[in-house]
Structure prediction request, 206 residues.
Amino acid sequence: MAQPAVQLLDDDAVLLRRTGVRFPVELRPAGFRADELSTWPIVEGRLEWVEGRLLYMPPCADLQQDVAVDVVHLLRTWSEHQPGFVVGGNEAGMKLGDDIRAADAALWLRADVGPSIGRLRQKPPLLAVEVAGQDEDEQVLRDKARWYLSHGVGIVWLVLPTARQVVVLNENGESRHSYGERLAEDPRLSGLTPLVEQFFTQADQA
Prediction:
């Protein structure tokens, strides 16, 4: 008998990739309360709480994780001369409204978030970045970008490793950028105009 895509064992969730499974997968663990992180199931992968559903995505594969590190690196390098900002990475968690989501990288105004105290940030970042993976096509990322913008995030970058492109979305529309181009400066992020190639430094060295 074929095994199900999701098995729940006590408080831990064991997920098995099977042909025909479309991510994200919804989990329904017993005793789960979204506002208490200690009740979230232990999984090898990523979890988000969206519109009353606990959604699972598998761990990032090599290309996605390499590009995500380059994104965090370029943001952190820029922020060294911008003390009014703080960079989040490693599935940067945020609670906006009733939803709990995570970005591959995010950039907050330090005045909005205050000191780090070991809890989810509850202010929208000025910039959220999502890197496409093998289970996330551009449409999936665009759906998440719309969520970000509707919850107060100012700018969203969608980084597409296979196409080697970056899509920038904000309240005024969107633009798509390829190799040889720089992202246009947003007045809220003075001097942050990376070349598209900078997002894929490690990927291009592979």
